[in-house]
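This part of the workshop introduces the protein records we will be handling. An example says more than a description, so a record of this kind follows:
>
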Amino acid sequence: MDGGAIWQTIGYGSHLGAAIICAALAAWIGSGRNISRTRKYTCVALVLTAAWALIAAALSPFSVWALAAECARNLGWLLLLYSLFVDDGRHSSIQPIRPVLFVLVLLELAQPALAAVMAHPGSDTFAQHLVFQISVILQLLVTVGALLLVHNLFAGASAVQRPRLRWSAAALATLWVVDLNYYTVAYLSNGVTIELAALRGIVVAMAVIPLAVGAMRGGTELRFMPSRAVTFRTLSLFIIGLYLLAMVGIARSLTWIGGDLARLTQVAFVFTASLVALLWLPSQRLRRWLKVTLLKHLFQHRYDYREEWLRLTHTVGRTGPEAPPLQERVVQALADITESPSGLLFAPADDGAMTLAARWKWPGIDVPAVAMEGYAVEFFATGHFICDLDDVRAGANQRGEANAVPGWLLDNDQAWAIVPLQHYDRLTGLVVLARPEFVRKLDWEDFDLLRVVGQQLASYMAEQAGQEALSEANRFDEFNRRIAFVMHDIKNLASQLSLLARNAEKHVEKPEFRADMLITLRNSADKLNALLARLGRYGAHGGERLETVSLDECVAHVAARYSAAHRIQVVKREVCLVQAQREALEQALVHLIQNAVDASADDAPVFLSVSNDGLYGLVQIVDSGTGMSPDFVRSRLFKPFVSSKPGGFGIGAFEARELIAAMGGRLEVESREGLGTRFFVRLPRTEVSSLIAKTKSSKAEVA
């Protein structure tokens, strides 16, 4: 291969690379909304420069089309220069700017006509040489005038504006200095050298990079302190660059084989494929693979702790109506560290077990009502042990974790790690992280960071719980004060009615009227006394004596109350005798059934069933209403004064649970948003109530 072919190949790659870089920078600058005027003009200038470089690579830097594209490129640069004067506010105060720019535009517009004259086949050698000299002189005038304007732009700027103009002015000055040298050599040597023309694309590609930086950063001072994100992207671009070089080599070889049409086709293909690869090849999957690879082999520490802590603070500190609950943000904060796609949060229940508190982007996993038993909770509460579930599946059992992890969690292959949230000596929750796309072995650095972040997140959850407890205590005080006034008034009214009843026995003359009045007054007094007794139970549950109650008859009696208002169906009714207080039991069932009726549509029935469930009698109340989220069930359903109904006082579910607990029973709930809710009322059966009482008393003596 001779020297001309070598420089032709270099020029091809130089201009093609410049076209790709300019187009990519234009796409980067033009992305986003509400971009500034300078960014728009920078984008236009880069697009025109990319078109010039592409035509120069496809045809020749000396072709008529390349010279016309160069004229358009220079006009784009002049437009950008004028926009910098406009942003600086000096386009109106410095009068010569507009005339000078106007003259430079006219000189540049003359270049296509001169190029057409030189390319005309009928022109003689002398005419072509003369036109060439005129064209070069005009180009020198344009470059000198543009350099003077750039100097005026930067030198006349204030100290505040100079940092903003630094990179853009430096890039424009470099571009026109290159053109000045290029055309000076062409004028002195009476021709353009192929070497300078070949290297021109590389210089232009290097000069437009600070031009894009100045447009994006607004001229602020640039410090080259590459972060891990920059390192990852640089490596991505490096891999793509190797791919582009291979593509250019193959395309160039094919161009030598074919003709001009084949060359133009190859250039268009290489440009399109390279631009698409540069913009879209670094997909999310590739970036994750690169990140894992670099962290394994390049960096001493896997994490950029400043970035991780800022992201943690941003995730947890989100507020507003669109922000997810704190429990979901806690899961997301831990999942972002390990790049886990989803996660679960378990929180302690009243009986010491763990129940589902929140799920983040993991709707497919089925979590039982009791996610983790009490003995497993004690294992995680004794230390800050982070459990790698893959190790447990492989048979590891260094600290007894194999017995603590529930089987349903091990059976799900997507479950990857368990991170405890420890606040001082108290376990506030457990986070289960899903398996990331690129799985790696957890090491000491992962454990240290997850442990520290877990402690910080536990403090956030403890702070929220403290605020909720304080708010609840304040509202309880207000409620108690109101109830005290109500009870005082009711006592007075009951006393007055009792006195009226006694006086009426002596003074009413007509026997029939006296009998009716006595019945009415006595019923009123009985109702008021019953209300007074029920209000008194708020402070002392379990004061009434338990008796044998037919659970199936009690449920049927309560269901009959709603026969005229809503469709209540008793789908299963087994004979079941339990130890309870009938009035309190009916009151609890009324609260639960009323909640189910309120949550259901008018034509949707509520289903009731009564059965014997081992040691307990079981009542199930099922509706197909809107359902409740795990966060609502855990933190708000059984909280007094929290109601989703307009005007509701929010003590129905709370009172139902307290009444059932006072009778030795349990109230449980399962709910799914959009599907409905199922309440479980369990009360001790009469046959085994004495055995349950003896078991509880023996446990208390041992404690």
